[in-house]
Amino acid sequence: MQKFTKLTGVAAPLPMINIDTDAIIPKQFLKTIKRTGLGKHLFSELRYDDNGEERPDFVLNKPAYRKAEILVAGENFGCGSSREHAPWALLDFGIRCVISTSFADIFYNNCFQNGILPIKVKPEELEKLMDDASRGANATLTVDLEAQEIRGPDGGCITFEMDPFRKRCLIEGLDNIGLTMKEEKSIAAYEEKAAAARPWA
Questions:
Q1: Do 150 and 143 form a contact (C-beta atoms < 8 A)?
Q2: Cα 39 from Cα 162, distance rounded (Å)
């Protein structure tokens, strides 16, 4: 999993509440088990019309936000089903951080397993960040996970809370498999000892 320490990138404003996982990645794109190739379908029904043409008014279709790495979104982001394809699609598009006042629990947990940093902020802080993200070409934020700070284009700073264990996993690039593999020697030693004690097993 890709490490997350500090990110400076364009932030795209998405001031919509209750964006569910079907809006993030519609069901017709869930046939794959690959984590790549989903970015082009991210927010498909919002990005494209019925003919597959881009909707020019959708934020990620605007020139300033085509390479956004941060998403500033309304409350209850990622609600709906538990599909892990949602963070896969965000990551494949290039989104490494999502900022909102609240997230659906399963989506929130899935983000940490895929190298995406979900940040919860207060409503008044989200309003300020949404304003920062609305500046087009100047909509650049710096997210520092180690310091737990978000810095805006005008130098303003917002601090955020983060579970220490999840913070460590993102900084070290460890998902559940990575955490298990860190104990590979201990696991091998246990298996060897167990095999000697129970050779019939």
A1: yes
A2: 27
Instruction: Evaluate whether residue 185 is within a structural domain.
Output: no
Which CATH number characterizes residue 10's domain? 3.20.19.10
168's enclosing H/E stretch is helix 164-172
Give CA angle at 31 (29, 36), nearest 5°: 70
CA pair distance 23, 13, nearest whole angstrom:
16
Give per-residue pLDDT as tens, 67-85.
999 999 999 999 988 789 9
Contact 85/37 with Cβ under 8 angstroms?
Answer: no
- Global pTM? 0.87
Domain of residue 165, residue span: 6-174
Residue 99: its H or E element: strand 97-100
- Ranking 63-72, 153-162, 172-181 by mean pLDDT, the lowest is 172-181
